[in-house]
Write a structure and sequence with these properties.
transmembrane, membrane, YdjM-like, hydrolase activity, mainly alpha, 9 helices, transmembrane helix, 260 residues
């Protein structure tokens, strides 16, 4: 939901920028990409939702990413960095990775062959569906998730053109989703090394985070009972505001959802 919130906020607030002037279909594609991308950084954790979404394929990829992240952490850390393994909340939790994911997505949308775009869209659709259903439906039906993801993928492909503007919007959506994940991790106890490899206070893996009193425990009561519902409500509100700007909700004309 944090990825959806970030995408809704960016597109609703940036009404004078091209990213805030998308068609309803392009906005919807971006919403799915951002929602799925909000889970993408946790590919470095073997037990995460994303690592379990596509069975042995995602599990194997997760193991490889975890090993790579651990290697990069060990070889680039400074004396003041902690001596942890660095597999989780390492390489994929940096702006460098978000930029790579955004550029990669843009390139696939812009230059994809017949198989690359459907695979990319299915992955993000699957992540979005699995991520949102994770809290609402603990006993998930794998077949249902696959069918719903396939239907969303079909719509995404139909609504995505290979123009520069469309490709850029898709890339931005993925970058926004990753960044939303980083913000969420930054307000937890461990923080998030967003700014790697910039050395801060003698650390290349400096855990960006607010003061301790403003942090929360991952999966704790504050996150599940307070932050989660607030994020959901804001996602719906700003999403409606963004869609109103695209002209997709004529019945809301005359209602100022985003007063400035």
């Amino acid at each position: 939901m944090s990825g959806l919130l970030a995408w809704s906020a960016v597109t609703a607030i940036a009404s004078s920028h091209p990213i805030g002037q998308l068609t309803p279909q392009s906005w919807a594609v971006g919403a799915v990409l951002a929602t799925g991308a909000a889970l993408l950084p946790d590919l470095d954790h073997p037990g995460s939702t994303i690592s379990r979404t596509f069975g042995a394929l995602s599990s194997g990829l997760s193991a490889g990413i975890n090993a790579l992240s651990s290697f990069v952490y060990r070889t680039t850390r400074l004396k003041r960095d902690s001596k942890r393994d660095g597999g989780h909340r390492g390489l994929t939790h940096t702006l460098v990775f978000a930029l790579f994911a955004a550029v990669f997505t843009t390139a696939v949308v812009q230059n994809s062959q017949k198989w690359a775009l459907p695979v990319l869209m299915f992955v993000f659709a699957g992540l979005a569906v699995r991520g949102i259903m994770n809290d609402w439906c603990p006993k998930q039906d794998a077949l249902l998730i696959t069918v719903v993801s396939a239907g969303i993928t079909w719509a995404m492909i139909a609504w995505t053109s290979q123009t520069n503007a469309s490709a850029a919007a898709c890339g931005i959506a993925v970058g926004v989703g990753c960044f939303a994940h980083y913000v969420g991790d930054a307000i937890t106890e461990q923080g998030c090394p967003i700014l790697w490899p910039i050395p801060i206070f003698g650390k290349t893996w400096y855990p960006v985070a607010p003061p301790k009193i403003m942090r929360m425990k991952t999966g704790g009561v504050v996150e599940m009972a307070i932050v989660g519902p607030i994020v959901t409500v804001l996602s719906i509100w700003l999403g409606l505001a963004a869609l109103q700007g695209t002209g997709a909700l004529p019945f809301l004309d005359g209602i100022d959802l985003l007063p400035v």
